[in-house]
Amino acid sequence: MDCPSKYNGTQNPEEWLKEFRFFCLLRGIHDEHTMLELAMLKIDNTIPIPEEGISSFAELSDHLKDHITYTLQCKVAFEELKNIKYDTEMSVVEFIAKFLSLCDNSLVLNVQDQKTCLIQACPDDISRNVFRNKIKKKTSMHEIIEIFHDTMIEHKGQIRYGSRIALKHVVTGQYLSHGNKHKPDILRSNLSEVFCSGWKRGGNDVWVITAAYGQNKAPGDPISSNSMIQLVHEVTRESLFGDEGQLNLSGAWVWTLTDPRTNWIIQRHSTLYYDSPGYVMDCDIINLRHNLNKMTLKSHEFKNSAGHQEVIIHGDGQEDLHQWQIELVS
């Protein structure tokens, strides 16, 4: 280990002194007075040592903290603390370690102040409100951090407008899919058939959830059960389509346009009819009910003319064949 660089006011005083003491111990220097003398020799001349001298490391630490550079360090750390945001792609542990370090460096040591900063660090208003309500009466920072961790893990698994997802048919294990280009139907050229294909997810099995036709939703907003959505095939950019008529049995298609026939109601699957509240989460079992004809997306082992597993729109959603597992695609 090399000798720590000269202290010039840009380092945290306590951290620098701890590192310097560690270096001395590695070099076999155990005498406190000797270590203190060596430490003072490594302090920049812009931070003068008082004429009466310094008799302990605690006194030296206080002296370094009295200098204007430490005041500025605290101000800079506080600005960073106010602006820090948790990114759902980062490790919660790494984020909390940085957060606590900034609290220490900015002298934000009161639990209530730390709570306020951690609430502001939530990635969006939804998670912020959930977290705020959960910690309202909490006074232990340890417990507050545990709740933050659990809230962010839950937040990370939420299905949102703009999410890239795949739908795996629960009974057969195959994914809702479409080819990599539009294949016009003989009677209606704007339509192209969807199907289930493969037990391993591929590029043609990825769909993007967007706001329903006629609705405005902000990308990133979580989707609650019984919301109306559109599903857009990522490769072809075509929307999952269902006929508006009350047909007893209808095929499922993608559509080159968007209109009310591309709107679907996403429902968390429940043994209770239409009743499984809450946000839709990664790996939830769902039904997709067409907004106009009220029938449900279904698959079974019958094959279409191309030899793929058939997908149809049929029934009220209570059969096992209506169940799909929704998977977030990173």
Automatic annotation (TrEMBL):
Coiled coil ranges: none
Domain MIR: 156-212
Cross-referenced PROSITE patterns: MIR
Keywords: Repeat, Signal
InterPro entries assigned: MIR_dom_sf (IPR036300), MIR_motif (IPR016093)
PANTHER family (alphabetical): GH21273P (PTHR46809:SF2), STROMAL CELL-DERIVED FACTOR 2-LIKE PROTEIN (PTHR46809)
Entry protein name: MIR domain-containing protein
Organism: Rhizophagus irregularis (strain DAOM 197198w) (Glomus intraradices)
